[in-house]
Each structure stands twice: as C-alpha cells, then as structure tokens.
RNA sequence: GCCGGUGUAGCUCAGCUGGCAGAGCGAUUCCUUCGUAAGGAAUAGGCCGAGGGUUCAAAUCCCUCCACCGGCUCCA
C-alpha cells in the first residue's frame, strides 16, 4: 500500500495510506480528534469526513468547535426544511439547498407557500430536531439516482452537470427523507438546537433569468436557542439603524413617489452633511494637485458613441430626443473630463493633469434593484480623472491610495480591497489589458495590501482596484475606486508632446475617494447610527434655556459660537423634555442656560453621551469646538476625562 | 424584469368574516416657566397608493397599474 502526504494547518506534514479519508487523517492525528470529526476542509473546500484525501492536499479537520461547523449544521437544517416541506406538501419538488453566511436556503417548486405555511413547516422541523434522526451517507449508482429523480429536472440537471463524471453518488438519509447531496452534514438532526424560517422569495434556476423561477425559502439555524435569539437581536439592531429609517427621522433626505424611483431629495439637514463631505474631498483633492471642473448633465450621443458608452452601456442610459437629435444623460463623468483635456495641446512637462468634479450621473438600474440610497437612478460621484505619462502611473495610483486611506481613517471605516480584472464585454487590446492589470497589482503588492482577486469584474474600459465598506448588516458596499484606462485616451485621440517632440498617448486614471456620495452617505448613517461626529452633525449645538426668561441669553450664547450650527430651543417645555428631544435628535452638545448661567455669563455643557459640566466659560467651549471640528474627531470629547 | 410581502393622518400603526375611518406621537392654541431623557387641556388634520369591477353598501372582495420592503452571487 503506498503512502501519500497531506499538509495540516500548522504547516506540518502527515503521511497516510493512499485512499485515506478525512476521518482517517483525523484519527492519525489523535483518537480524540478522530471521534470529534464532523467534516473536513480539503484545499479550501468543505467536504464530508468520509471523502478521500489526495497526495499533497491541505487538510483542516472540522469539529463542533470549528467556524465551519455552523455551516455544516445549517446545511443539515436545509435538509430538515426539505423533509418537513415534503411531509406537509408531498407535491413539492426540491432543487438545491445550500448553507449561506447567515443561514441556509432551499429552492423548491410546484408548491405555493405563504407565511402561515412557513410556521407550520417550522413546527414540523422542530419535531424532526426532537426526533434526533441519525443522518447517514449512502452511495447510490447513477441508474438508481436517475430513476429516483425521474420527475425532478433540477436534480437530473445536477446529475448531468456537477456530478457528470461520478458513477457513485452520495445521498444523505435521515428518517423518511433522502437527498442527493455532496455534504457534509452533522451526525443527527438533534445537533441542531434552533431553527427559524425567515422569508420566501424567488430565484432563477442557477441564477439565470432565462431559466424558470423557483420558490426560495430562507432560514437560519444555530446550535442553541440562545444563539438564535442573539442573531435575531442583531438583525433588529441593524434594522434600527437602517439609513432609510434614520434618514426620515433625522429629516436628512426623502425619495417621494412623485419624483420618481431612485431619485432622492436632500433636505437641509442632509445637505449640510453632504457639503461637509464635499468640502473634505475637495481639500484632499486640491492638496493632491487636482483642479475643480464642471460639466453638464446632458451630452449629445455623439460623445457617448466616441467614448464607447453607447455601445457598452446604452441599456443603462437615459436617452432624450431634442429637436430630432439624440442626447443622453451622463452615466459617467469621464468623457466630459477627457473632452476638457482635449481642448488644449499638452507638453510632457504639464502631466499629470488632474481634474475633479462632484459629478451627478444617471443610470437606469432595474427597478427591483433600487433601494434607499444604496441603489439609485441619480447619484453624485466625487469623480477625479488624471492624465499622465505611462511611467507616472504607479506614483499616481499610490498617491490616490494614500488619499483613500486618509478617508477611511477619518471616518473610522474598515474596507476590503479587491482587484477587478477584464470582463467579457470590454474594449481594448489584450496587451493593453495585461499591462494595466500588472501595474495595479504592482502597487498593491508593493504596499502590502491584502486584496481579493475578482476576475471579470472590471469596467469595460479597464481594470480597477475597488474598496468595499462593511455596513451594520455586514453587507459590503462599493466605495472608493481606482481605475486605469488605456482605452478612453485612444477613443478621444488624446495626446501630449514628449521630450522627443513626438506625439504620445497619455494614460487616464479614474478615481473616487467616496465612490458615490449617496452610498457613502448611507454607509455613514448606518456606521454612526445617526450620531454623526461634530464636523458632520447637521445641528452641532443646541442651547436649552431653563425657562423663557433666558431666551435672550440663549441667543447671545448662540451668537458667540459664530459659524457653528447652533439652534436655540424656544418651545416652552420642561428642561427634561428639551434634553430628551435633543438626545433623540443626536445633537452632539446641549448647552443648558438658566438664571445662574445668565448672571455669571457661563454655560452648563451636556453631551449626547450624557456627560455634563457646569460653570463653563463660553470662550473655552468655543475654542474646544474649533479644535474638535478642525480635527474631525469622531466623538464629542469636551467632557471626556 | 421575476417571486413573496406591504401601501390607512406629517410619523408609527390598529381597523377580523363588507355596514358612519381610529389610536399614539407630532402640529396648532391656551394654561404651566420648570435645573439634566416625555407637565396639563383643547383643536385641527384623511381621494384608506391610482384606475376599473362586484354589491343596496367597499379601506375591506375581484382585476389592472404604481410605489416601497425582502430576495433573485456564494455550485448536490
């Protein structure tokens, strides 16, 4: 019997007999581990403990202590759902039911389900958990499987596609239920402590809109009721800080039906925040050598044909007929900026030339994709385009990355970095794509940035580095982006004169620090839970007179605070009520002024973290505000000890 | 676009099997002038998302449309 060698997570190597399974490897490490083994991860793929390992494999043993255990458990929960469904609705046909990051889903068909059905199914699932049915793996022949799934086109699809080569097919059986499944699963349904069905939606078979629609039921499962409850509380918390809810409560923005879908209106409170954001971006851009420009919202389609948008992006564009000529609302700002560049002749000494604009763009997204500020029809990009010589690319990209990291730092945000490469639908030669992808990779590698590779996710005109923020729900959202573009200069025939007195083609780089203001605003609302730092807060200070007698003094205090966004609470409420309202409005600082303060010319300061201090000199507080605002501190800290 | 859900006062929502449209918060007015998270009273406020149909009668039942919410990537 020959031996093979596998690598364990600590880097050590282990020899086992050829044909050994994951479980065999675990027993080889130690009998205790062998007994506890639930599944394995071989070369990054979660597999059943009965699956064989191959020579040179990276093997991780999964026990009920592993992170992957929950995934295995949820996969079994998906089977429990299917079992319960088939007990109550024998006519239902099963398609696929994998685990997800949050739980699991199962796609089914030939059955109509509503919320009441889910409850009944959930009850049935609990019975199955209580019955503690053993989950057993069985191997069947291809003929057997085909016969079993005679009436199920989806399972047959799987047999002919994913499992095409296999003659032995694995089934998992629990009680009266069996399912074609690669696994792995937990050993018995009793290991699942809690299940919950969350919602019903639909999905296309294999995610392809040309295929038929399946009913998808989402659920989640945990080891214990407590874990489930914690999870549900987290969901509720995330819902509480939903930007759509806070946006309404704080009067930041609205998307009324009458203005059309995905076309947000910014109210004065929201605009104050946007203006601060815009000012910050402008200062970073000006420091980095960018010059502000401005372009209209509408261009002749000639321009979009020249840029390539008309060929590649027309389905997402709003087109208009004006006096028998076709115009298009701009979906991107780059053609306008390229055209500005093209109005001069340039020397190599002039480069890089850097333009930026808060440019409003319009993209006709599918209606079902629109959602709050995260997906809209009209949005504003803090869009910069720079034109440089090829040898300047790396330095320019590094400078852009520095600005992006300054932004992340300022807001206390985390981001995931991804390098997106050539998509199927693209313009430009293979050489050009390869050259630009190599340049981006070089910058990332030289700066030791952790990044994911996203093949095929680039723009049609070039590869890009994308930053994704993580929001309160753990969803990832597009944020800053840096894109190299060798195509646009070609299409616009942009040139500069080199040292050799010959014409050369500049390289164009697209970049945004925030991404879009809309989406960045959304991320910030949820990130801060409406409690914006002083520099962003629409209302920075509210003066609360104890009685109406101090209204005059309250206004004098407001005037002494100069340009800060200060309001005076002039409603005849009790002090307790005034504080409650200010607290609910997330105002960073409340200044209480009563008879004592008016006489002494002082203020009593309270912040939204409920700290307070009396007998404060107005001048000292104003100086603090200047510093806190100037340094963009994340929390009000006048009262910090 | 597709599947499921929702649409009633400025906001949050109640209104079951058809029978005079409700509550809380907010707003307005009056009283109260208050020391660190809701003082009291009164008043106003509605094309029940839009259009069509069934019915003596529709917020409620049926059809069409619109908007919003969740989902439509994570491979048995």
TrEMBL record:
SMART domains assigned: tRNA_SAD
Aminoacyl-transfer RNA synthetases class-II family profile domain sequence ranges: 266-533
GO biological process: threonyl-tRNA aminoacylation
Residues the record lists as binding Zn(2+): 334, 385, 510
Record InterPro entries: aa-tRNA-synt_IIb, aa-tRNA-synth_II, aa-tRNA-synth_II/BPL/LPL, Anticodon-bd, Anticodon-bd_dom_sf, Beta-grasp_dom_sf, TGS, TGS-like
EC number: 6.1.1.3
Subcellular location: Cytoplasm
Domain TGS: 1-63
Cofactor(s) annotated in UniProt: Zn(2+)
GO molecular function: aminoacyl-tRNA deacylase activity; ATP binding; metal ion binding; threonine-tRNA ligase activity; tRNA binding
GO cellular component assignments: cytoplasm
Note on how the cofactor is bound: Binds 1 zinc ion per subunit.
Catalyzed chemical reaction(s): tRNA(Thr) + L-threonine + ATP = L-threonyl-tRNA(Thr) + AMP + diphosphate + H(+)
Name of the top EC class for this enzyme: ligase
Residue numbers spanned by region Catalytic: 242-533
One Pfam family cited in the UniProt record for this chain: HGTP_anticodon
Keywords on record: Aminoacyl-tRNA synthetase, ATP-binding, Cytoplasm, Ligase, Metal-binding, Nucleotide-binding, Protein biosynthesis, RNA-binding, tRNA-binding, Zinc
HAMAP family: Thr_tRNA_synth (MF_00184)
Family affiliation: Belongs to the class-II aminoacyl-tRNA synthetase family.
NCBIfam families, A to Z: thrS
Subunit structure: Homodimer.
Name this polypeptide is given: Threonine--tRNA ligase
